[in-house]
Amino acid sequence: MMTILLLFLPLLAALVVLLGGSKHASSIALGLAVAELAVTAYAINVFQTEGPEAFYVFHTWIDSPKVSFHLGLDGLSLVMVILTNLLVPLIILSGFNRTIPNAKGYFSLILLMQFALVGVFMAMDGLLYYIFWEVALIPIYFIALRWGGHNRVAITLKFFIYTLAGSLLMLFGFIMLYWYNPEQSFDIRELYTMVISQENQSWLFWMFFLAFAIKIPIVPFHTWQADTYRESPTQGTMLLSGIMLKMGIYSLIRWLLPVLPLGVAKWGQLAMILCVIGIVYASIIALKQKNLKNLLAYSSVAHVGLIAAGIFALNIQGLQGSVVQMFAHGVNVVGLFFCADIIFNRTNTNEISELGGIRNLAPLFSTMFTIVVLGSIALPLTNGFIGEFLLLYGVYEYNVWLSVFAGLTIILGAAYMLRMFKKVMLGQPSSYVPEFPDLYWNEKIVLGVFVLIIFGMGIYPQPIFNLVEPVLQDILSHSIL
Amino acid sequence: MNTLIYTAGLGMVCLAMEILDLRKLLVPVILLGLAVIFGVNLMSWADSGPVIFAGLDMSSMLLVDHFSVAFNGVLIVAAAFLFAMSHDFYKDEQHHLSDYLTIIVFILCGAMVLTSYSNLVMMFLGIEIVSISLYILAGSRRHDLRSNEAGMKYFLMGSFASAVLLFGITLLYGASGSFKLTEIASYAATYGMDSPMFLVGSLLVVCAFLFKVAAVPFHFWSPDVYEGSPSLVTTLMATLVKVSFFAAFYRLMSSGFAGIDPHTSTILVIVAAATMIVGNLVALKQINFKRLLAYSGIAHAGYMLLAILSLKTNSASALLFYGATYILATIGAFAVALPVFSSTGKETIDAFDGLGRKKPFIAGMLTLSMLSLAGIPPLAGFLGKYYIFSEAIHNGYVAITLLAVITSIIGVYYYFKVILAMYTKAGEDTEIQFPMLYSIVGIICVALSILLGLWPGGLMGLL
Amino acid sequence: MNQLIFISLSTLTIVSALFMVFSRKPMYSVLSLIFCFFTVAGHYILLNAQFLAITHVIVYAGAIMVLFLFVVMLLNLNTVADQIKTMGFRVAAMIGAGMLFLVLLASLKSTTLGTFSFPEDNGMGMVEHVGMRLFTDYLLPFEISSILFLSAMIGAVLLAKKEKR
Amino acid sequence: MTFLGLMIPLLPLLGFLVNGLLGKYLPKGSAGWIGSLSVLASFVCVLLIFKDLQAEQAISIDVFNWIALGDFSISFGLWIDALTMIMLMVVTGVGFLIHLYSIGYMHGDEGFTRFFTYLNLFIFFMLLLVMGSNYLMMFIGWEGVGLCSYLLIGFWYKNEPFNDAAQKAFVMNRIGDLGFLLGMFFILFHFGTLDIQTVEQLAPGLASNGGLIMIITLLLFIGATGKSAQLPLYTWLPDAMAGPTPVSALIHAATMVTAGIYMIVRSNVLFALAPDTLTIILWVGVITSLFAAIIGLKQNDIKKVLAYSTVSQLGLMFVALGLGAFSSGIFHLVTHAFFKALLFLGAGSVIHALHGEQDIRKMGGLKKLIPITYITFILASLAISGFPLLSGFFSKDEILAHAFEQNKIVWIVVAVSSFLTAIYMFRLVFLTFFNNFRGSDETRSHIHESPWTMTFPLVVLCILAVLGGLIGLPAIFHVSHWLNTYLASVTEPSAALIHHGDGISHGLEIGLMCFAGLAAIVAIYLMYRKYVMQKAIPESEESQQGFIKAIANKFYVDEFFENAIVNPVFKLSEWFGTFFDKKIIDQIVNRTATTITSGGQALRLSQGGNTGTYVLAMVIGIVVLFIIRLLI
Amino acid sequence: MEHTTQLVPLNWYLLLSTFLFCLGVMGVLIRRNAIIILMCIELMLNSVNMLLVAFSSYSGNSDGQVFVFFIMVVAAAEVAVGLALLVSIYRNLGSTDIDLLNKLKW
C-alpha cells in the first residue's frame, strides 16, 4: 500500500495540478510534492523498522508474456527515491518567482516525471522498469520543447531520439533476456539467477550498456547533453542532470552488473576505460567553456564518468561511492544549475565572459554558490568528497594507473570550477550586472536545503552506506563469478 | 457467419434509407446496427464452428473461429469510428452519403470474409469486394483530379495484383486440386516442398498479398493513393483494410500453407527488412500528413510481417493486438487531422502549426496517437511492437528484429515532426472547427490506446 | 487432331493478343481482344467446358468488350494514335516481362503433372453440373459476389453519373 | 582531557559559525574579538592539556565512525601526542597573535567580519590537520586549509590578479593533494587502515616490500611539496602574497605551509623505511632552499622577498627531514614560525603605515617613524639570518650540523643558501628602514606607528623569535635538548631505522657554529656597506641583464609552467571543445542522422508518380523474389 | 472427343497461359492508355481462366470451372468500375493517358 502510494501520488498530483488551473499551479504542485516527500519520510521510517519486505508489491499484470507489476523498495531504491522526492519539491520551489507560461502544464509534467522516476527506481520487473524508463523521457522532452531556449527544437529532438535509440536497444536486450530465461519472465530475481552463455552476454552487454551510456552520458555518447542542458528550462535541466541521468547509473548497478556478469567481465574493462577517458576529456573541455550551463554540463559528464567508473571497478567501495556520489551529485549539480538560473534570471545571460562582480552585490548568494561549488569539487566535509574518495579508491583497487588518470579530476575539477567562479562572481561588476538583487525567499530555501545536505552528507554519510550495503553486497555477489 | 449476414443486411438497410430519404438517420442507424453486429459477433465467439447456410455445410467456404471473431470485433469497432467520423466528413455531400456509407459497409463485409475464409474462392471474393469498393471510394471526389488519379492508380495496380493473385491461386489449384485451405494445407504438408507449381503459386499469392498490405517493393501505390484519396477513405485504407488484409495473409500462411517453409521465410525476411527501411526512411522527408502516414503504414506493415513470419499461437494474438493498436492510433490521429484539414484547407504537416496553443486538448490527442504509433510506452503501440518483436525473437528472427528496432528509432523522428509542428510553430490564425463527433472518436481511441497499454490482457488473452 | 486444333487456336490467340498489346489504335486493340476472347472460348470447348465457353462469349465478348468499345467511342479515343513510352522504359518493360516469363518457366519446368489424366467428357462442363456446384457448394460465394456487384454498381453510378448542378 | 581536546578545534569552529552566520547582526568590529578570543580559548585548552600530558602520553578521541563499509572503517578521530602538542601550540599561539594583529590591520576593511570568519575556519582546519588520528582526517584539514588559503588570498576579490593567485594556489595544492590521495589509497589497500598509529606500527612488517613503502612515501611527499611549496610546486606561494598580510604571516609562513613537514614527521617511520625517498626529499629541499634564496636576492616587493625566504626556509626543513633529523625539522619549523610570522607582521605594519606601498625601493628611513616595528623586524631578520644565539641560529645550525655529518655537498649548498638568506634579509632591512624616505611627501606625512593590537603581537613574537632557540639548545651548552626529548616518543621508532652519521665532535660543532655566525655577520656587513653607506637602490627591471634579469624574473618558472602546461591544456581544451567534440564526435552522431535522411530523400525520389514505373517495380520485385527463391 | 485423338499435354496449356499472362504484363507495362492497360489486365485474367479450366478438365474436378465464373464476375465488376473511373478522369483531364497522372508523387 505504502509502495503504491509512493508511486502513484505524483501521478495523482500531476492530474490535480493539470486540472487546478495555472494560477495556483506552482503552489499546488509544491504542496503535493511535499506530501510525497512526507510519504517518503514515513517510508524511511517503515523501512528502518520493517525492512524492505514491507514494500513488496507483486501483481500479475500481463499473463503472456509474463509481466508482473512487481515493485520493491530495497536500500538502493530507497536512496534513489529519497533523492528524487527530495529534489522535486525543491525544483518546483525553484520555479517560484519566475514567470512561466502555462504553469499548470509545466508543473504537471514535472510531477509526471517524478512519477516515472520513482517507478524506475522501484520497478523490479524488467518490462515494467523499461516502461517507466521510457515514460520518464516524455515529460522531460515536452518540458524542454515547450519551455526551452531558442534552439530547443532541433536539440531536444536529438536528445529524445538519441536516448530513445539506446532505450530501444535495451528493450531488445530485455526481450532476449526474456527468452533466455527458462522461466520466461522479466522478474528481477530470476534475471539475477539465470545462466546465459558468455557469448550471448557479451553482446547483450552492449545493448544495455549503450542505453545506459547514452543516458548517463559516458563519453563518447555525451554530445546531446550540453546542448540539451543549455536549452532546457532550468527546472528541466535540474530534472535531467539531478535525477534523470541517475537512472542510467542506477540501472548499471541494478540491471547490468548482476544480470550480465560475464558480459561485464568481458567488456567491463573497456567500459571502464571509456569512463575514465570521459572524466579527463570532459574536464579538459570544461576548462574553456564560454557558457555557464555548458560548463556545468561538461563538469557533470566528468563527474558521472567517475561514478560509472566506480561501478565498473566491481568492488564494494566503488559501488558505495557511486551511490553516495549519485546522491551528492544530484544535489550539487541541481544546486549549480539553480545558481546559473539565478544569474540568468537577473542578468539574462549565461555567457561567462559577460558576467563578473556578482560577489559584491549578492553576498548571500555568493556564499551559497561557493558552498555548492565546493561540494562539487569534492572538498572534504562536503558531500562530494565522500563519494569521490570512495570512487577513486574503488578505481584504484581495480587498476592503479586508471585511478591516477581518473584522479586528475580533482585537479581539473578545481581548475574549471574556480575559473568559472572567478569569472562569474568575482572581480568588478560587468556591464551586464548593473544590479543584482540577492536571493528571494524561495531561492534562499532551496539553496539553504542544498547547503544543509552538502554538509550533512559530507560529515555523516554513514546512513546511506548502511542503507545500501546489503543490496550492494548482494549485487556484487551476483556480478563477480 | 451471422455477423456477415447482418452486416450485408445493414448495407441493404442503408440503400433502403436512401430511397426512403432518411439520410439524417443514416449514421445513427449504422452505428446502432454495428452495435448489434458487434453483439452478434460476440455471441458467435462461444459457438464458433461450421457455417450453415441454407441447410448446406459451408465450412469449406467460411470458418468462424476465434481468430475471425476477434478480428471481426476489432474491425467492427474500427468501422464504427469511421462511420462516426463520416457524419461530419461528408457534411457537404449529403446526396451521396448513403452511397459512401453503403460501400464502407460492404467493405466491412469483405473484410469479414477475409478474416474467416477457408476457401481461396472466398479469399479472392473478399479481396475483390474490399479492393473494388476502395477503388470507387478513392476516386470518389469526381472533380478532384488528385482523387481521380488515386482511384485510377489504385485500380490499375490493384487489378494487376489481382491477376497475379489469380495466377497464383490457379497454380495452387493445379498442384493441390482444390481451393480449400485444409486440402491445400495437407498437400503442402505432404508434397509442398517438392512441387514447383505449388511453390510458384504460393509465391505469387504471397506477392499479391504483399501488394495489398503495401510491402516493399509492392508498396508504390500506397503513398500516392493515400495522399489523393479523400481523407476518410485514407483512414479506412490505413486502418480497417490494412488490418483485414493482414488477417487474411496470416490465415493463408497459417492454415493454408501449414506454416512457413524456409524459402518463403527468407523472402519474407528480405521483404520485411526492405519494407521497414523504405517505409521509415522515406517517411522522414514527407511534408504531406497523409503521405507521411502512408509511409508509416508501410513501415508498420514491415513490423506486422514479423508476426506473419513467426506463425505461432501467440503471434496471432500479437498481430491482433498490433492491428488493434495501430487502428486506434491511426484513427485517433485522423480524428484530429480531418477537421484540421477541412478548416485549414491544407493536408500538409504545417496544417497543424500552432495547434498546441489553439487547441491544447486536441493537440494532446494527436500527440498521444503519434506516440502510440512511435511505440512509446505506456501507450498501446509500445506493447504492440513489443509483442511482435518478442514473438519474432522467440522464433529465431533476431537480426530482422534488431533491424526493426533500429528502424523504429528512425520512425520516432517523423512522428515527432507532427508534434513539433503543433507545439513549436506559430501557425496561422484560422479558426479550427472541431465537431463533437471527431472529439468523441479521438477521445475513445486515445483512451483505448492508453487502456490497452496498461491492461493488454483483455485483447492479448483472446487468441 | 486435338493438338492441331490447340496449336492453331493458340497461334490465333497469341497473334491477336500481340496485336492487342502492340496496336497503337485503341479501336484495333479492342477488336483484336474480342477476337482473342473468341479463340479462348474455343479452348474452353476443346477442354469440354461448354457452358463456360458460352458464358465466356456472352460475358466477355458480349458485355465487357462492348463496354470497352462503347467507352472508346464515347471518349472518341480513336482519332489519335496513343502516345508511347520512352524507348528506355519500353526496353526495361520488355526485359521485365521477359524475365518474368523466364523465371516462371524456370520454376515450372520441372513440374510433373502425373495426377492429371485425359479429360473425359463426363458432362462436367455442362450447365447442369456447373449449376449444381454453384448452388450447393458455392452458394455462399455466389451470394457474396452479389455484394461485390452491388458495390460495383453503386460505384459505377457514383463515378460516372453526371452531376445535376 | 578528552573534552579539552575536543574543544581545541571546536572553539575556532564556533567562532567561525558565530561570525559567519550571525556576523551581520553583531556590532561592527566585534568579529575581530570573537575570532581572536576563540583562538585564545583554544590556546588555553592546549596549554591546559600540555600541563597534564606527559611527553610519552597520547590522547585519542574517536568522535564518531565516519566511513564504515566493506572491510574498512575510518573514524572521525583526533589524536594528541607530543608532536601534535608542539604544532597545536604554534598554531593556536601564533594564530592568536595574528588574529589580534589583524584587528588593527584589517580595521575599516569592508570585509572585516568575513576576514575573521575565514581566519577562524582556517584555524579549525589547521587544528584538524594536526590533530587528525588518521590520514583522511589529516586530509580534511589539508584540503580545508587549502580552501581557506584560497579564500584569503582572494580576499580582495574585486582585484582580478588576486583571484588568479588564489586559484593558482588552490589548483597547485590540488596537484599535491592528488599525490596524497593516491598515497592514502596505497596505505588503505595494503595496510587496511588509514589510522596513522596503526600504520606506523605495521610499517616495519611491510618493509620487505621496499618498493611499496617508497611509492607511498613518494606520493605523500608529492602532497607535501604542494602544500609546503617545494620545487616544482612552489610558484603559488609568492603569488599568494596577494592576500592580506596577516594571512601571509599565518598561513603562508607559520602554519599551513609547514603542514608538509608535519605530515612527514608524523609518518616518520614510513619515511625512515624508504631511504630513497629521504634522499629525494633531501635534494628537493636542498635545491629549493638555494633556488628560492637566489630569487629572493632580487625581489623588490617586501612580501615577495619574505615569500621566497619562506620557500627557502621550508626547503631547509625538508633538508632536515631528508637527513632523517625529524625533530630538527620541527625545531626549525617552530622557530621559523616565530620569526617569519614576525617578519610578515612587521612587513604588514610597514605596509599599513605606508598605506599599501609594498615596493622597497619606495621606502627607506622608516626606523625612526615606526620604531617598534623597526626593532622587532630587525631582530627577526637577525634570527632568520642565523645571527648567533638567536632562535634561527640554533635551529639552522642543528640542520647544518646534520648535513655536515652526512653529506658535505649538502652542507656547502645549505650554508650558501643561509648566507644568501642573510644577504636578502638585510638588503630588505636596510632598504626599508635606513637612509631617507624615498616615497612622496604626502605619504611621508601620514606614516605613524601601528595601534597596540598590532604592536603587541610584534613584541610577543619578537621575544619568541629571540628566545625560541632555548627549546633546542645543542649539546655543547651542556643542557638537554628539550625538543628532542619531548618528541622522542614520536621520532624514536624511526631513529633506529635511519643510518645516522658518526656524529661530530663538540669542537667541530663549535667551529661550524662560529663559521655560520661569522658568515651571517659578513653578509650583514656587505649589505650595510652597499645599501646604507653607498645608498644603492635596486635598478629598475629594464636595466637588468643576463643572469640578474633571470633572477629578478624568478628564473621564468612561472612562464615555463604557463607555456609548458597551462597553455597547452587550454589549447587542448579549446581543441577538444570546439573541434573534437563538435566536429568529430557530435558529427558522427549528426552525420548518422543526415545520412539516414538523405537516404530517405533518395528513396523518396524513386516514387516518381508514374504508374508504369510502379508496375515495373512490382514485376521486377516478383522476378527478384523468384530468383532468390530459385537460388536458395 | 475421341480417345484416338492425340492428347494435348497439360504442359502446353501451362505454357500458353504463362505466355499470355506475361504478354498481358508487358502490355500493362508498355502502354500509356488506361483503356488498353485495362484490356491487358483482362488478357491476364483470361490466361488464368484458361489455365483453371485446363486444370479442372484434366483433373476431372469442376471447382476450377466454378472459380472461373467468379473470376468473370469480378472482371465484369472491375471493368465497370474501371471504366467509370476512366470516364471520370477523361472529364477532368481530357485524356486517358496514365502518364499524365503524376500529380501524386514523392
Structure notes:
The complex is a heteropentamer of chains A (481), B (463), C (165), D (632) and E (106). With 165 residues, chain C is an all-alpha fold. Chain C is built from six helices and no strands. Chain C has two domains: 1-79, NADH-ubiquinone/plastoquinone oxidoreductase chain 6, subunit NuoJ (Four Helix Bundle (Hemerythrin (Met), subunit A), Up-down Bundle); 126-165. In chain C, helix 1 (2-22) runs antiparallel to helix 2 and helix 2 (26-46) runs antiparallel to helix 3. Chain C starts with a helix and ends in a 5-residue tail after the last helix. The relative contact order of chain C is 0.07. Chain D is mainly alpha-helical and 632 residues long. Helix content of chain D is 73%, strand content 3%. Chain E is mainly α. Chain E has a domain at 32-101: Orthogonal Bundle (Helix Hairpins), CATH 1.10.287.3510. Helix content of chain E is 74%, strand content 0%. Chains in contact: A-B, A-D, B-C, B-D, B-E, C-D, C-E, D-E.
Task: List its traits.
heteropentamer, B: 463 residues, mainly alpha, two-stranded antiparallel ribbon, 19 helices, D: 632 residues, two-stranded antiparallel sheet, 25 helices, 2 strands, 3% strand
| Helix proportion of chain C | over 70%
Order of helices and strands of chain C: HHHHHH
The gross shape of chain B turns out to be: globular
Radius of gyration of chain C: 20 Å
User: How much helicity do the residues of chain B have?
Assistant: over 70%
Please tell me the total number of domains of chain C. Answer: 2
- As laid out across the biggest beta sheet of chain B, the strand order is 1-2
Corresponding CATH superfamily of the largest domain in chain C: NADH-ubiquinone/plastoquinone oxidoreductase chain 6, subunit NuoJ
Q: Label the CATH architecture of the largest domain in chain C.
A: Up-down Bundle
User: What is the helix/strand order of chain B?
Assistant: HHEEHHHHHHHHHHHHHHHHH
Average pLDDT metric of chain B: 89
Mean pLDDT reading of chain C: 84
Q: What structural class results from the helix and strand content of chain C?
A: mainly alpha
Question: How does the SSE layout of this entry go?
Answer:
The complex is a heteropentamer of chains A (481), B (463), C (165), D (632) and E (106).
Chain A: H1 2-20, H2 25-50, E1 57-62, E2 67-71, H3 75-94, H4 103-122, H5 126-147, H6 152-180, H7 188-193, H8 198-215, H9 223-231, H10 234-259, H11 261-287, H12 292-312, H13 316-347, H14 358-361, H15 363-376, H16 383-398, H17 400-425, H18 441-459, H19 462-479
Antiparallel strand pairs in A: 1-2
Helix pairs in contact in A: 1-2, 1-4, 2-3, 2-4, 3-4, 3-10, 3-13, 3-18, 3-19, 4-5, 4-10, 5-6, 5-10, 6-8, 6-9, 8-10, 8-11, 9-10, 9-12, 10-12, 10-13, 10-19, 11-12, 11-17, 12-13, 12-16, 12-17, 13-15, 13-16, 13-18, 13-19, 15-17, 15-18, 16-17, 16-18
Chain D: H1 2-22, H2 30-52, E1 59-69, E2 72-80, H3 82-105, H4 112-131, H5 135-153, H6 160-191, H7 196-202, H8 210-227, H9 236-239, H10 245-254, H11 259-266, H12 268-272, H13 275-297, H14 302-322, H15 326-353, H16 371-385, H17 391-406, H18 408-433, H19 441-446, H20 452-467, H21 482-495, H22 506-533, H23 546-552, H24 557-605, H25 611-631
Antiparallel strand pairs in D: 1-2
Helix pairs in contact in D: 1-2, 1-4, 2-3, 2-4, 3-4, 3-10, 3-15, 3-20, 4-5, 5-6, 5-10, 6-8, 8-11, 8-13, 10-15, 11-15, 13-14, 13-18, 14-15, 14-17, 14-18, 15-16, 15-17, 15-20, 15-21, 16-18, 16-20, 17-18, 17-22, 18-22
Chain E: H1 10-30, H2 34-59, H3 63-93
Helix pairs in contact in E: 1-2, 2-3
